[in-house]
Amino acid sequence: MENPENWNIYKASRTIKRSDNTLYNALRSIYEDSIFVGEIAQLWPELPLLANLRCGLWYSLKFHSTCYFKSTDGHTNNWSFNTSRLNLHVALLAGQKGGCMIVDSTRKGKRFPDSMSKTIPIWTCVLNRAIRNYRTRFGLTGSAGKNESNDSTECRNTINEDSYSWDCSLHLPLWVSNTERALIEERLDGWTKDLEVSGADIASIALSLKKHLRPLWISQKTVIWLNEVPDCDSWDFTPIILVSTSSPSSNFQQRTTSEFSWRYIAGAGDDEESWARGLSPTLFWKHAYDLINSGPDTCNKTVADIVEKDRVYRARRGENAPQISIKPSKSSVSSGHFPDQEQLDLGPVCMNIDEKSYDKNSISWLGETNLAVGTTQLAKDASGVDCVLSCDLETNSSSVKESGANLNLSIVSSKYDRSSLLRNLPSAVNFAKNNLRNGKKLLVCCNSGEDISICVCLAILMSLFDDKGHFDDGRFFNETRINKLELRRRLVFICQFAVNARPSRGNVKQVFSYLCGGNIAITS
Q1: For residue range 251-286, what is the model confidence (pLDDT) as tens digits?
Q2: Is 475 exposed, middle or buried (0-12, 13-18, 19+ CB in 10 A)?
Q3: What angle do CA 405, 411, 415 make, to 5 degrees?
């Protein structure tokens, strides 16, 4: 261990930060911030509460649904409207309920993460423009000729009036500079065209939304007069209320209760792999009382016991529940204390959301393609499935049994192996081809049902289906030069049915590399 006398200011500050960023401090901070989220949710109880994955999922006991807006799409000079993360279910839900609330947080000492400051405002603006264009086209082409009825004329005139009054301006928070606003506005028309050619179902959103989308921002420093809370119906827009849980005054604040002293961490739910030690949001809220009252000294042991009991429970049910060894943290090593080796679960985060709006215990059928996608644990009891393609590194034999109708491929995330998916795609596509050509229904599954299985389905759709979504044994693929636009259109198609899809960029790149590497041989 390095002598502390030789440390510079940077090393000393890093050591202090690591010692402050303990498991108990993180969980206690999340619990305190969740109280604020609950208070805001009660102001508009009719609006559904959504968690922006993955950080936002920690801050409430129950969510109506989830969404996935990345802060990187809003970083300065890196602004983007990503057609692989359209979140169209959010717009549909907002149209049905009159708005929605999205929860997220940030560790960087800001009031709002970039996902709320710029990514979501860009998203609402681009959707509004695409809807306006759709309504305008509908109004201009809605004429049935000279003999059209007065009712038809009146309806068309109403549509045209709505299109002209539909607000398509970019609404950003005040702290975004005018220079940055201007640079974003220059890109809006291009992003709108990208959305319109992506194959997204703009018509359904246009029919669902009665008023244009507009973001509103609420943080712990927002002043709200409880006797003047406006009713959602009184607004001339559909509100997307962005709730940032972080207290921006300081990243670390010393706080004291009658029993414990602890430090508040802004955005504590972020980067859970670095601190959660296998604990998921669902497990946290199931045992929140015990964890908060356990205190800093016994919190780590309490979490280890909870995680291990849950792992054993899931393993007995036949689910994939591996164990791993957690390395001692740098703060533990530097302090001279080496904790005992612990076996902790790294299973996927279980979404604690409203089962009425989103059924996590069901698979998603991709239209009429005979393809379905879901988690591995659903494969054993999935109804209407003839064969299963499992993409798990470790597949429990009781979940997916190896047979002629099933295939297990050990595929890992691009984070750990940049070519794992690419190496296995030929086997996956060939297995799908042999079964789909016989009219069988195929389930593609992975541990989370959100990334690798989605990318395998994308490769299958591109390789074996035409642009209308019909199985053609690879003829369209052989006759067409594949480009990124067509890849995005197929991914948008998948996301219309698998709304929880979150394919990583690295895995999507591997799919594109596979498709550009050669054609699928057509066999009789």
Answers
A1: 556 676 657 788 889 889 988 888 888 899 999 999
A2: middle
A3: 160
